[in-house]
Amino acid sequence: MKKIVKKNIVVPIILSAIFISTTAFKNDFFEIAKQIEIFTTLYKEINMNYVDETNPADLMDTAIKSMLDDLDPYTRFMNEQDVEAARINNTGDYTGIGARVKTQKDKLIIIEPYKDYPADKAGLKAGDEIIKVGDIMVSDYKEDSGNLLKGASGSTVNVTFKRNNNTKTATIERAEVEIKAVPHYSMVDTKTGYVVLSKFNRKASAETSYAIRDLKAQGAERLILDLRGNPGGLLNEAVNIVNLFVPKGQLVVTTKSKVKKYNKQYFTSREPLDTDIPLVVLIDESSASASEIVSGTLQDLDRAVIVGARSFGKGLVQRPKQLTYGTQVKITISRYYTPSGRCIQSLDYWNRNENGEAVRVKQENYNEFKTKNGRKVFDGGGIFPDVTINKVKNTTITKAILNSDLIFDFATDYYYKNPSLDIDNFKLTDTDFKDFKIFLENNNFTFTTDTEKALYKAYETSIKENLNNDIKADYDALISGLRNSKKQAIDAHKDFILKSLTEEIVKRYAYREGLYEYYKANDAHIKKSTQILGNTMTYMDYLR
């Protein structure tokens, strides 16, 4: 009896001690263990007892992605293929055919062959549809068919592709491919250098430094750094790029997190390349992350004039964490802040609206900060340029046109209908714009506005309530009006459409390198930047 009493006394004491120590350390760990156990048993029961056959891998993939969708778009599970793609993006090196390829359901589309790389040497062009790789039909391949083009350097791959309704074949000899962070640099005029930085991989600062040194040797006394379309990349490379223009020991970016070890300040650590050369940085709606660190920091330090359009607004930092079987999870670990103290994150993923959508900070809630010289700058999402040019609102119509691939397809048709073209004097006309609108109609281009969705939902409700006879005529009239408005919306975005078409068409004839040469002669951003840099007083006025 004594033993029993002792046991009954001792066990509660031990459990209490465990409970006290655990809760004192962190309550979350018990909750995590509990939820994992619940999920494990549920997952097992579903796979064992569900009425139809289940695919355990697909179920788990859906479960993981659905869980992460509730966080933000950047916290992502990465399978082995994703990990390899991230490695290529960060290093800029891989072995393959040397072309951007888009995977579709039953074919591979060559988006852009890189000049003088294997695909280009084999005669492949943008718009070619690869339907067969070796003996494997792309339509029958269940995995990512883009992997069929990969292989060891020096090995060959035979491809069958369609071009202009004709079937052709080619043999491609794979090679080492280097994707440059700086795909182009040159002189705009006798005193102005132009550097395009397209990504922040491990070579970004070294390639940018080399380009600037070369341009200075050619006589450059002022610089344009083009970050348009640059989605970002490695944070330390952003710090190193800033370091080219500002002294050693300068604060560039601060990261803040709930995890103390991720609360860091990043300072320049090297001697600068040139702290005095006049500098303009170009940004647009697709300049994100590391691009915003560079442009925002140089703006805060009054070291450069920022020209273009408000940047994307990604103020979140991710870090990959190794998982099992070669997989990773890329986790948002912190927010970053420019030297003035502003965070440029545009969307709030943690306080969503009633539809579960991330919300943008309202302009009246922007916070004001000051640059080194006392100029006003604001948070609220993205870097606001000092000089705004060709601001294009990211609307339903612009998104739909870009996502439809019809600009790409029109450029393909245009290229084969016009085998020779004077790129230096190339300019699309009103007739070309009309042709594109006809092309949209012929390819059944459609898009649905939020207004249409709301009206249809209301109409569906009226049917359930037996009211549709009373409102059908009004509903039809509203939908008809919306269709006319959508046609007018295409006309309203004429400049955006023509610019996008022009860029795609120029690349067909002169590769991406030729596009940058075309920019120097025709691009409004570069013309304005050259004008600003050409007048010392004008340049300094923007920074005061």
UniProtKB/TrEMBL annotation:
Gene3D superfamilies reported in the protein's UniProt record: 2-enoyl-CoA Hydratase, Chain A, domain 1 (3.90.226.10), 2.30.42.10, 3.30.750.44
Gene Ontology CC terms, in alphabetical order: outer membrane-bounded periplasmic space
Domain of life: Bacteria
Keywords of the record: Hydrolase, Protease, Serine protease, Signal
Sequence ranges assigned to domain PDZ in this UniProt record: 82-165
Record InterPro entries: ClpP/crotonase-like_dom_sf (IPR029045), CtpA/B_N (IPR055210), PDZ (IPR001478), PDZ_sf (IPR036034), Peptidase_S41A (IPR004447), Tail-specific_protease (IPR005151)
Family stated for the protein in its record: Belongs to the peptidase S41A family.
Name this polypeptide is given: Carboxyl-terminal processing protease
Organism: Jejuia pallidilutea
Short name of any one Pfam family annotated for the protein: CtpB_N-like
GO biological-process terms attached to the record: proteolysis; signal transduction
Family annotation (NCBIfam families): prc (TIGR00225)
PANTHER family: CARBOXY-TERMINAL PROCESSING PROTEASE CTPA, TAIL-SPECIFIC PROTEASE
GO terms for MF: endopeptidase activity; serine-type peptidase activity
